[in-house]
């Protein structure tokens, strides 16, 4: 059977329009959780949940208002883990956990240096949260790899992909490896490299290995999720312009699956709702008008089998 990749807009009310926020699926409570981000009136520290029908604000206290942080679900400990980003005081290095009711700060130091715009995923084989790279300060890009075990951050590599910000990373449980894609760095204040290389860290624990150097060309901070069967990437082929693109990585090559659905945007977020088998996208920054426009739309992607005609 062939498969159809179908995007559907679900909602245009809920969290205020924003970009640079973070989102992850809380499997224990069967909710997509969103925290923070940059809005028209500045950074936020609100927490929202999406149940497939509506958004509900569940907290307005916790970590400081910030953007370009990340959240992942720790499957072993049944907690969401939030790290880093940028707040009013600069780059953050604190670590927080969400138990479904409250945010608790579990570390205020660990990674050196603090950073935003990094890539983070939960490695089910290692049973740890893994973080790669990021931006420590303007022009200072990183390529170190760290692991969080629920108590401490430990550096596990300082080589691999070149220093960069804005990469996407997931753990492919069927192939038992981390998958890292893309990102950017700065050649000058107005010129930057856009990467479309793909790296993997397998269960042999030999570190990062480049497995492909061609793929989608992304300007908008690529977003990636693993559904249990598919590694899904949402990209913007131009900086927040045109139509968004949806791609799949099969361990060897990238294949474009859809070029319809959410319009192109910078800094949206994706999460995979495993209970409902849907990829959820929220928000981002639209550059298609004369003035950038922050979005607050919610979309879902269904990958469905289609019987032959």
What would you note in describing this structure?
With 309 residues, this protein is an all-beta fold. It has a single domain (2-306), classed as Neuraminidase (6 Propeller), CATH 2.120.10. The chain has strands at 2-11, 22-26, 31-39, 42-50, 55-59, 70-74, 79-83, 86-87, 90-91, 95-98, 103-107, 119-123, 128-137, 140-148, 153-157, 168-172, 177-186, 192-202, 209-212, 223-226, 231-238, 241-249, 254-258, 269-273, 278-286, 293-306. A hairpin with a 4-residue loop joins strand 4 and strand 5 (55-59). The termini are close together.
What does this entry show, briefly?
With 309 residues, the protein is an all-beta fold. The chain is 0% helix and 56% strand.
* Tally of alpha and pi helices: 0
CATH class: Mainly Beta
- Arithmetic mean of pLDDT: 93
CATH fold name, please? Neuraminidase
**Helix and strand sequence:** EEEEEEEEEEEEEEEEEEEEEEEEEE
Count of the domains: 1
Q: What is the terminal-to-terminal distance?
A: 10 Å
Q: Could you tell me the number of beta strands?
A: 26
The percentage helix is: under 10%
What brief labels describe this structure?
309 residues; 4-stranded antiparallel beta sheet; 0% helix; Neuraminidase; 56% strand; mainly beta
Q: Helices and strands in order, then pairings?
A:
Elements: E1 2-11, E2 22-26, E3 31-39, E4 42-50, E5 55-59, E6 70-74, E7 79-83, E8 86-87, E9 90-91, E10 95-98, E11 103-107, E12 119-123, E13 128-137, E14 140-148, E15 153-157, E16 168-172, E17 177-186, E18 192-202, E19 209-212, E20 223-226, E21 231-238, E22 241-249, E23 254-258, E24 269-273, E25 278-286, E26 293-306
Antiparallel strand pairs: 1-26, 2-3, 3-4, 4-5, 6-7, 7-10, 8-9, 10-11, 12-13, 13-14, 14-15, 16-17, 17-18, 18-19, 20-21, 21-22, 22-23, 24-25, 25-26
């Amino acid at each position: 059977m062939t498969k159809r990749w179908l995007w559907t807009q679900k909602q245009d009310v809920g969290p205020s329009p924003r970009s640079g926020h973070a989102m992850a699926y809380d499997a224990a409570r069967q909710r997509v959780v969103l925290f923070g981000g940059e809005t028209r009136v500045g950074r936020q520290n609100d927490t929202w949940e999406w149940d497939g029908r509506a958004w509900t604000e569940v907290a307005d206290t916790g970590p400081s208002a910030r953007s370009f942080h990340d959240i992942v679900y720790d499957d072993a400990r049944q907690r969401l883990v939030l790290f880093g980003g940028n707040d009013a005081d600069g780059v953050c290095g604190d670590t927080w956990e969400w138990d479904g009711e409250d945010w608790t700060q579990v570390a205020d130091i660990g990674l050196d240096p603090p950073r935003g715009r990094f890539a983070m995923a939960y490695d089910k084989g290692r049973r740890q949260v893994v973080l790669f790279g990021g931006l420590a300060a303007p022009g200072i890009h990183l390529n170190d790899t760290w692991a969080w075990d629920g108590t401490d951050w430990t550096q596990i590599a300082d080589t691999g992909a070149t220093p960069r910000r804005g990469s996407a990373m997931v753990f492919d449980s069927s192939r038992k490896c981390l998958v890292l894609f893309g990102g950017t760095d700065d050649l000058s204040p107005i010129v930057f490299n856009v990467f479309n290389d793909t790296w993997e860290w397998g269960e042999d624990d030999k570190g990062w290995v480049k497995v492909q150097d061609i793929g989608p060309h992304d300007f908008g901070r690529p977003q990636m999720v693993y559904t249990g069967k598919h590694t899904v990437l949402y990209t913007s082929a131009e900086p927040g312009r045109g139509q968004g693109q949806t791609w799949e990585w099969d361990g060897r090559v990238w294949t474009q699956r859809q070029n319809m659905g959410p319009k192109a945007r910078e800094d949206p977020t994706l999460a995979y709702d495993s209970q409902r088998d849907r990829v959820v996208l929220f928000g981002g920054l639209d550059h298609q008008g004369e003035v950038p426009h922050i979005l607050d739309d919610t979309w879902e992607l269904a990958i469905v089998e289609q019987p032959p005609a």
